[in-house]
Amino acid sequence: MDDSILTNPNLLKYWKLVRGTDKTRLSMMEVMSLGVNVTCFDVLPKGSNGFHWTDSLIDISLNNNQYISFPDIISGSLPSYSETKGINNDAINFKVSNVNQSVRALALGGFLKDAKMNITLVILNPYDSTVLYSMLMFSGFIDYVQATADPNDKTNEMTIYVNSVYKKLDRQPALIAANSVYQSIYTGDEYFSLLGQVNQNQDWKYK
Q: Sign of the C-alpha dihedral, residues 177, 181, 186, 190?
């Protein structure tokens, strides 16, 4: 998290309001404990306009996109994130609720298959709900979607399964060229001479 958000005057003022103590700098956990963080989702199907959703109670403007307050993310369904050294291609899945009929039809009809999906953490100004900070947390491609709708139980949920962007390295090994082949085309360029070091200690997982 950027240092500027940890010393943001509006967040420090809000901290004093709700916690009753003065601070000149907040920790990342303290920022998250203020309840001013929301999540934004980009769903970008191939050859079509994208969908931009947020779990915020109001619509949000971010990066020239208007994020609509829909659908609802079921509490606790989003995975936790952690920074790791190296690359991992773990898939994630999460549930959304209150899905309307048109979105469900698109999802179950395969329209969202392989659509790119970005998940962004957003910190809002507690006084006017404008965006103070945003950070991309996950980027991947939708694998498949499951939906559940039961009017008797008032259930209307959709589970989205997303592979990370590194699934291309699993499924398209031709993207990684041998150093000798690369040298024959670009003499002197030793980019792929380090390929063995890049791939060492990497655990590529399949669903």
A: positive
Q: What is the pTM of this model?
A: 0.70
In the chain, how many domains are there? 3
Q: Are residues 134 and 69 in the same domain?
A: yes
117 Cβ contact partners less than 8 Å away, ≥ 6 residues apart: 41, 42, 43, 44, 138, 139, 140, 141, 142, 160, 162
- Residue range 49-79, pLDDT digits in tens: 888 988 888 999 999 999 988 756 655 556 5
29 and 93: one domain?
A: no
Which residue range(s) make up the domain with 87? 36-166
Residues 6+ apart with CB under 8 A from 17: none
Question: In this structure, are 192 and 118 located in the same domain?
Answer: no
| 175, two tokens | 């993207």
64 and 154 belong to one structural domain: yes
Lowest mean pLDDT segment, chosen from 31-40, 97-106, 108-117: 97-106
pLDDT-derived band of residue 87, with 50, 70 and 90 as boundaries? very low
